[in-house]
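Below is a filled-in request sheet from our internal design queue. Each sheet records the structural input a requester submitted and the sequence that came back. We keep these sheets so that new team members can see what a complete request looks like end to end.

REQUESTER: design group, bay 2
PRIORITY: normal
MODE: inverse folding
CHAIN LENGTH: 143
BACKBONE (tokenized):
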């Protein structure tokens, strides 16, 4: 059987001081840009009240706990889509702090942007080898 290498360019980022808390992404995966855009859009206006289900006969604390669990599941599910493996349980454990999540997303999106920009420039250079050279247009001076 033939084997080919398709050149994945995974970037590994350690989150915090724990060397096991890593995330990986491929800056050459242009779908990553769409997923980042989608995640930021899906979190706009996110409210615990949106996750409240049936409240009949339930204590207020139980209602809030269920809503928060559903919200956590939604948020962590969206974040996990950015990467090639589930990362939220590893990074956050049983915690669900919107401050932590926001901090992580802000920082990881900034890191991703830096690598994506670099990859796009390198990709353009690689493509130019296969494209015909662009002719310089000369301007004709009007008299």
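RETURNED SEQUENCE:
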């Amino acid at each position: 059987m033939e084997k080919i290498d398709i050149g994945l360019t995974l970037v590994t980022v350690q989150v915090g001081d724990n060397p096991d808390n890593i995330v990986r992404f491929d800056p050459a995966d242009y779908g990553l840009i769409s997923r980042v855009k989608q995640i930021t859009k899906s979190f706009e206006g996110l409210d615990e009240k949106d996750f409240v289900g049936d409240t009949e006969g339930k204590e207020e604390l139980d209602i809030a706990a269920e809503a928060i669990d559903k919200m956590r599941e939604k948020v962590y599910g969206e974040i996990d889509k950015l990467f090639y493996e589930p990362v939220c349980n590893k990074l956050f454990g049983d915690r669900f702090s919107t401050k932590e999540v926001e901090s992580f997303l802000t920082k990881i999106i900034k890191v991703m942007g830096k690598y994506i920009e670099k990859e796009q420039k390198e990709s353009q250079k690689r493509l130019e080898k296969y494209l015909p050279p662009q002719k310089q247009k000369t301007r004709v001076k009007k008299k």
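SHEET NOTES:
- The mean pLDDT is 84.
- The longest helix spans residues 98-128.
FILED BY: M.R.
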